[in-house]
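Hey, I'm writing a tutorial for new members on how sequence and structure tokens pair up, and I'd like a real worked example in the thread rather than a made-up one. If someone can provide the structure for the chain below, I'll link this post from the tutorial.
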Amino acid sequence: MERKSAMCEVKFESILANHCAPVLMGTKLSNLISLSKAKLSYDEELLEKYKDIFKAYGIAIEKLCECESSMLLLIYNEERLSRYIQKPRVRAFLKDYGYETIELDACLLTLKAKLRHFEFPHEIGVFLGFPIDDVIGFIKNEGQNYVYCRYWKVYARPESTKRTFDLYDGLRTFVKTKLMEGYTIERLMREVYQGKEALHSLINAA
């Protein structure tokens, strides 16, 4: 049983490294991960363990929706995402899409309600920390006419966004390399946030 649990954690940490490294390393507000229950022996204990690990660094895990075969998780920096949705243009945008109270917990409840009704709302880009101009551009252009695409479809300021994407690539490589060296996510986050594993060279290179 312990071996199965350990293998499950290794798989989960690989998913986190691939999809959430910039969030875990403190440079991106949030990210979504979709977990297949067939490929990952999921239980609540696994999520609770990582919720406890991340809490020390201001990062939360929210289950946005779940079905028999999979679940969708939002991994996010609570303080930074809360500040982002309070920006005037973002607040106005969310209110136009039915978010009556612009408090993070209330907004996530509204988002989950929309997902339960089989919608995949385009405003979800806001909750992933995408620039508001890119979220609006995506909606107005129905996902077409973007000027660049990697982590999201870009409609404004492509050059600075490319540098951001390069940073995200570097952080993903950094985290994946550390896991291959035998680190756990918990150990890596502890050392990064305590300054023992400096990210300055990566960040300055982007």
